[in-house]
Amino acid sequence: MKTKYLLFGVAILAFVMVVFLVLGDSDSQKRYVEQVEKDRKNREEIFKNSPESPIAKKDSFAGLKYFPVNPDFRLKAKFEKIKGNPRYALQMTQSDAEQYVKFGYARFSYQNKNYQVLLLHKPGDKYLFFPFTDASNGKTTYEAGRYINNVPFPKTEEIILDFNYATNPYCVYNAEYTCPIPPKENRLAFAIEAGEKKYK
């Protein structure tokens, strides 16, 4: 009889722990979504009012469009540092190539397929730079690709590629800007319906 009650108690405890983990994870995702939405509002405020905005005529600014925040597009990747910090001449849309550093590779799996992308760093920047193209370009997103400008420097062999923070290059909003062209290493075969949409 004692064994029966003991097993019952263990089962109840296990159930409570599972519920706690699920609810905890749900709460964490809610906070994550709220933070991304807050960052998007801050970015729109900058575009609307800041003198550093790429929008030349702010009175005609129509606002920015995004996909709903999707935590599934916050991908964990294995990071491999490139030794020697080799220079990389990144082609621009309207000017000579700009010098970056080939910082490392990020490897991840999506829908049972493996991918490897190149992460760049411009000396002096606080974050790594990830310009990319994907299968949504020309349909729901900008034709020439998008960027993730805020990839944190990895402290371990794991790195996060958060496509909810994918944004358009400034030349989308103003033809006077010259923008980096995503390298061929970062051409992704699947559609990334996360981050910023086409600007109209």
Which parts are unreliable, with pLDDT below 50 for 5 consecutive residues or more? 1-23
Q: Helical region count?
A: 1
Largest sheet: 5 strands, antiparallel
Mean pLDDT: 89
Radius of gyration: 21 Å
What portion of the residues fall into strands of 2 or more residues? 25-35%
What fraction, in percent, of the residue positions are helical?
10-25%
Report the span from N to C terminus: 71 Å
> Rough shape?
globular
| Category from helices, strands and their pairing | alpha+beta
Write the H/E string, N to C. Answer: HEEEEEEE
Can you count the beta strands?
Answer: 7
Describe the model.
The protein has 200 residues and is an alpha+beta fold. The chain contains one helix and seven strands; from the N terminus they run αβββββββ. The strands form two sheets. Strands 1, 2, 3, 4 and 7 form a five-stranded antiparallel β-sheet that branches. The termini are far apart. The N terminus is likely disordered.
